[in-house]
Amino acid sequence: MSKKMADAELLSSLDDFTSRENWEKFFTVRGGGDQPFEWYVEWPSLRDPLLSVLHTLDADSLQILVPGCGNSQISEFLYDAGFRHVTNIDFSKVVVSDMLRRHVRERPEMKWRVMDMTDMQFADGYFDVVLDKGGLDALMEPKHGQKLGSKYLSEVKRVLRSGGKYICLTLAESHVLGLLFSKFRFGWKINLHAIPHKLSNNPSFQTFMVVVTKESSCILNPIVLSFEQSSLDSNETQARGLLQVLEIENKIRNECSSGVDILYSFEDLQLGIKGDLKELSPGRRIQLTLGEQGDSLFSYKAVLLDSPQQSYPFAYHCGVFLVPKTRAHEWLFSSEEGQWAVVESSKAARLIMVFLDARHTHASMDDIQKDLSPLVKNLAPGKPDSGAQFPFMMANDGVKQRNIIQQITSTMTGPIIVEDVIYENGDSDGSGPIPLKDLVFRRLTFERSLGLVQSEALLVRQECTEKSPGEMAWKKTISSKSRKKGSRRKSDSRTSSIDESRENQKVDHNYLASAYHSGIISGFTLVASKLENLASSGRTVKTVVIGLGAGLLPMFLRRCMPFSYIEVVELDPMILDLAKDHFGFIEDEKLKVHIADGIRFVRNAANDSTASKITANDQNDDYSSCKGNLPFPNGSGANSLTEGEKSTQFDILIIDADSSDVSSGLTCPPADFMEESFLLCVKESLSKEGLFVINLVSRSPAIRETVVSRMQTVFSRLFCLELEGEVNEVLFALPMEVCIGEDGLSEAAVQLEKLLNFAHNERGPNILETAKKINCLK
C-alpha cells in the first residue's frame, strides 16, 4: 500500500475531526514529525502565492501563528524562508512533543505549544498573521454546526493586531465560506486566491487561500477575487457552490453599504461599527444577532434601542423586552416606529428587544432568561459590574387566571378564542360589596392581533342584573377594561380560580367593560339635540355599526336607546355565531345583523341617498319603506327591514372593525375605511345632522395624523376623545357646520344623560365627565 493510500485510510478512521482523542490516536499510529502529513496542498504549490502575501509585511518582526499545526512542514518552510517568529499550537500532546523534538535544535526560535485553537491563551492583538491550513474546515463538522468554527474565528479576530492577516487554506465549501464571510464583514478586507492543485493529496478539489486583512476603519468592502472564474481548476459542484456563496455575500455587503437595515453580529459591534456600546447614544437603533459565539443554548435576533430622550429620569438604565413569536409580526414590534413606542413605555434608557421564534418554542422563560442574561449584559451601557437593575419584560395582558371557553378557526378571520379571565387586582383597593377577585370577564380575541382584545364583557350571576343601583355601587371599584395587551404586569396564578360552573352566569349588557365603548356613547353628546327631537316626536334614530365583535355595543345601545333602530354589518358569519352562543347577543325587530362587506354597504347606501335626494327633514318617523333600497344582499343570512320603510340615510354610523393587517400600524379600522373616497361616501350616507364615529387604534403618530387630516378634509367638524391609559382613541365627525362650545357640550351631556335609559345609573357611562374630555380638531 502506498504512503498516500495509507494516509487516506488512516484519515478516514478519524470519524470526528474535532476530537482530541482521535487526533492523538492518529499521530500515535502514523508516527511523529518524521512522517509529515499535509492538508490539501503541499509547499511547492503554496510557496509563491503565500510568500507574495507575507512579503508585504516585515519578515524580521512578523509574529505568525499556525493553529492546528499537526505535523505539517509548512512552519519549517516559513522559518527557512526568513520568518523566524512562528508559533505553532495543537491540542494533541503527541504531535507537539514530536515536532518540538524535531525542530528544537535546527529552528530554536520557533515555538510549539499544546493549546485548543478555539480557546487560545494569547493576548489581544498579539499576532501579525494567523495561518490556517485546513483548521477551519476540520472544525465545521456537520454535527457541531457553526459552534466550534464561530468560536475559533472569534479567537482569530481577537489575537490579530490592526493590519494583521488571517490566511485560511480551505476547500471553500459553502457552509465554511458562509461563516467565514459573515464573521469578517465590518473592518476587514477579503481577497480570495485559487491555489493550483497538481501536487495536492486531494486532486478532485481545488484549494483556495482566503486572505482577510484587519483594517482600522469600519468600511464594508466587497470580496475580491484574485483569479478569473474561468480559470478554476476544480470540480463543477465545488466551483458552483463557491460562486453562489460569493454572490450572496457581496449582495449583502452592497445592501449594507447602501444603508439597508441589516443584522450585525455582536463582534461587529465590538469593533465600534455603531459607536461605543458602553455609551448611550440617543436615537441609536441597531439590529443584531446574539448567541452565535457558541456559548449559549440558542441564537436570537434582537434590536438595541437607545431612548431618543435622555433628559428625564429612567426607571431602568437598561432593560430587555422579550417578544413572543406569536406577536413578532405586529406593528408595535416589527416596525421601527412601533419599537420606539415600546422604548418610551418601558422607561429604559436602553432597551434590548429580543425576538423569540420556533427555536425557543420548547424552552421555559426561566431557561431563556438564564441563557440571555450573559449575552445582554455585554450590551448594557456603563461598567458591567455597576450593579444596575436589569429587568426582563414581556408583552402581557395582566391576566391572573384564564379559562378558554372555545377555540375555533374561521376561514375569514383565522383562529379565534373565547375565554373567561380574572385580572390582577393591582389597580384597585378592592373595596365594595363584591370583591374584585370575584369579577370574571369574558373576552373575544383574534390570534392575528393578540395584542388587542376585540370584545370584553362582565359576567354576573343572573340575579345580579336586577339589583338596585345602590346594591351595585361596587362598579366604582373597577378600572376600565378596554384591554390592550402589552402591559408588563407579572402574573400570579396562586389566587382564586374561575368558577367552572357557569350555568348561573351571564353577560351583563347593562355594563360596558370597554372604555372606548363608553366613549362612543358619550360622544352622542354632539348630536344630543337631534336625538332628543327624534325621540320626543316618536321618530326613529337610524344607527349602523360596522363590526359586530361580541355584539356588546349594539346590545347596550338597544337597551339604552329604545327609540333607535340598529343595524350591524359583519363580514364573518362565524363572529355572529360566537356572539350569540357566548355573549348573549340577540336579534329582534330593532336590532338586525347583516353579513356583508361594510365598505360596500356604506357605498350602496350613499348611492341610494344621492339618487333619492332625501334630506333629514323628509325622513319618515317609522323608518318604514326602505326594504329594497338598503344594500342588503339576498341570501346573506340577515333579516330584511319591514315593509313600507323608506330612508337609507343614517343618523349615527359607527366603525368598530379591526384590520387583518396588524403590521400596518393601523389596528382599527382597516386602512380601506380611511380612504378619502370612502369617507365621502360616509358623508353622503349620513343625515344632515348625523354623526360619524370611528374607533381608532394606532400607536403611530404619523398614521394618526394622516387619518385626522383626511377626515378634516371631508367633514365640517371633527372631534376626538383620547382615553387615559388606553390605546384606543375615538373620533367624531359631523357632516355639517355646528357651533358647539365648551358650555354647549356640558349642557348637551346633561341632555343626553336624561335621554338615555340606563338600567343602573352607577353602571352606565359617566357622560358628563367624559364629554369634558372631547376636544375639537376642526
Question: If you had to describe this structure to a student in words, what would you say it looks like?
Answer:
This protein is α/β, with parallel strands linked by helices and 778 residues long. Among the domains are: 256 residues, Vaccinia Virus protein VP39 (Rossmann fold, 3-Layer(aba) Sandwich); 130 residues, no CATH class; 109 residues, no CATH class. Helix content is 29%, strand content 22%. It is built from 22 helices and 27 strands. The termini are far apart. About 10% of the residues have low confidence.
Unreliable stretches covering 5 or more consecutive residues: 426-436, 465-497, 614-646
Shape: elongated
CATH secondary-structure class of one domain: Alpha Beta
Number of strands: 27
SSE-based structural type: alpha/beta
What's the arrangement of secondary structure elements?
Layout (H helix, E strand, L loop, with lengths): L2 H10 L7 H11 L12 H12 L9 E4 L6 H7 L5 E5 L2 H11 L7 E4 L12 E7 L1 H5 L7 H13 E11 L3 H10 L4 E8 L11 E8 L9 E2 L10 H22 L5 E3 H5 L14 E6 L9 E7 L9 E8 L7 H4 L1 H11 L1 E8 L9 H13 L14 E3 L4 E12 L3 E10 L16 E7 L8 E7 L43 E3 L7 H9 L4 H9 L4 E6 L5 H9 L3 E7 L2 H10 L8 E5 L2 H15 L37 E6 L20 H10 E12 L3 H14 L2 E6 L5 E7 L7 H14 L11 H5 L2 E3 L2
Parallel strand pairs: 1-2, 1-4, 2-3, 4-5, 6-8, 9-10, 12-13, 12-14, 20-21, 20-23, 21-22, 23-24
Antiparallel strand pairs: 5-7, 6-7, 10-11, 11-13, 15-16, 16-17, 17-18, 18-19, 24-26, 25-26, 25-27
Helix pairs in contact: 7-8, 8-9, 15-21, 18-19, 19-20
